[in-house]
Amino acid sequence: MNRRAATGSLLALTVAVLGCAGRAREERAAAERAAAAEAAASADEPTALPPNSPYVVVLGTAQDGGLPHLGCEKECCTAARRDPARRRLVTSLLLCDPRDGRRWLFDCTPDLRAQMDLARSHPATRVMEGPRPALLDGLFLTHAHMGHYGGLLELGREAYAVKGLATWLTPRFADYLRTNGPWRLLAEEGRLDLQAIDPGRAIELAPDLRVRCFRVPHRDEFSDTVGFLIDGPNRDLLYLPDIDKWEAFDAWEPPLAEPGEPANGGIRTIEAAIAAVDVALIDGCFFADGEIAGRSMKEIPHPFIAESIARFAALPAAEREKVFFTHLNHTNAAATRGGAAWKSVVAAGMHVLDDGRLFGL
Question: Is residue 5 one of the residues assigned to a domain?
């Protein structure tokens, strides 16, 4: 080999070595960032709540079918059957006010019995007296898909037989329950006291605790679909478990508001909803396209978490920090804590919601 060739070979080898070293440094830095984000995600889970202040308990974070899912023999579900820590109940929240012991349920799921067991100690000031004490002080329902109202059957005469339970829902949803069996018995027998909600009109639970709703586009076969804004004394929380694509919300025209009222309670985009609160629990049903084998995902439109990560990348870090993805399908890889999909959410400055999480208001 002549001197020129040897010099060229040495130069190429040097560049290759430096390139490998550079990539190694980048990979280490990326790993360190991911580890730091993961540690922060674990560290931000509250261990205590402010005394005498309302709070929310997350009773479930799964899509309507839960995790594990009926008939699923994939690793996502077999692992959850082996390890109870990987199981997820269907999406629901419990709003608690320890100042007087009252509590309200958001969405009434097929997992209601297990969720009421989890809710036994919330709030600690609640007094349960008599042979059949009131389970709740009210219900807020987002829409008429199975995972969000299927548990109402547990409140009828065959089961707990509640009496006059205040139930807030859209007028169309209320009409559906009143006119269709088996739900209409709940209204006819006075089990549920159906009360209509409309965007822009707040339900006052206490002078410093209110609930508002806003409409969103979704597969509204039997009812409208809403998200809820919970306004607390110190912090506000968004609950939006179901919606079509974010772009569909951008293009959607909500019903006309009353004169002088902002359309749809002032919420016209997901960014506006996030900006209006301190904590945003939003639809993260699927992680990415193609995760449902043998079925077109256009039939079940939801924002993919991967799409949300890309869309929210332009938001300030403080806005992304508010976001928690919920309503996770059993196929959603982000449901596995510490997995690659979960880490990608954390690295993007957001969170995957867990059952049992507490949020002070």
Answer: no
Tokens of 49: 């709540």
Taking Cα atoms as reference points, which of 87, 103, 254 lies closest to residue 170?
Answer: 254
Residues linked to residue 194 through DSSP beta bridges, in sequence order:
167
The β-bridge partners of 214 are: 227
For residue 219, name the pLDDT band (cuts at 50, 70, 90).
confident
φ, ψ for residue 240, nearest 5 deg:
-135, 80
- Tell me the pTM: 0.86
Number of domains observed in the structure of the chain: 1
Q: Of 155, 213, 205, 207, give the one whose Cα is nearest residue 185.
A: 155
Residue 71 phi, psi (nearest 5): 80, 0
pLDDT digits (tens, 9 = 90+) for 75-118: 888 988 999 999 999 999 999 999 999 999 999 999 999 999 99
Spatial strand order in the sheet of 139-140 = 192-196, 165-169, 139-140, 102-106, 92-97, 55-60, 358-360
Alpha carbon distance 110, 82 (integer Å):
22
Task: Report the mean per-residue pLDDT for the chain.
Answer: 86
Least Cα distance to 213 among 257, 177, 151 occurs for 257
Residue 225, pLDDT above cutoff 50:
yes
What is the residue range of 352's domain? 29-254+263-360
Residues forming beta bridges with residue 236, ordered by sequence position: 231
- Which residues, at least 6 apart from 62, have a Cβ–Cβ distance to it below 8 Å? 88, 89, 90, 91, 327, 328, 329, 330, 335
Mean pLDDT within 148-163: 93
> Is residue 62 included in any domain, yes or no?
yes
Residue 141 within a domain:
yes
Say if residues 143 and 242 touch (Cβ distance below 8 Å).
yes
Residue 3 within any structural domain of the chain: no
pLDDT at 316: 97
pLDDT for 190-206, tens place per residue? Answer: 999 999 998 878 999 99
Radius of gyration of the chain (CA): 24
User: For the domain that residue 199 is a member of, what is the CATH number?
Assistant: 3.60.15.10
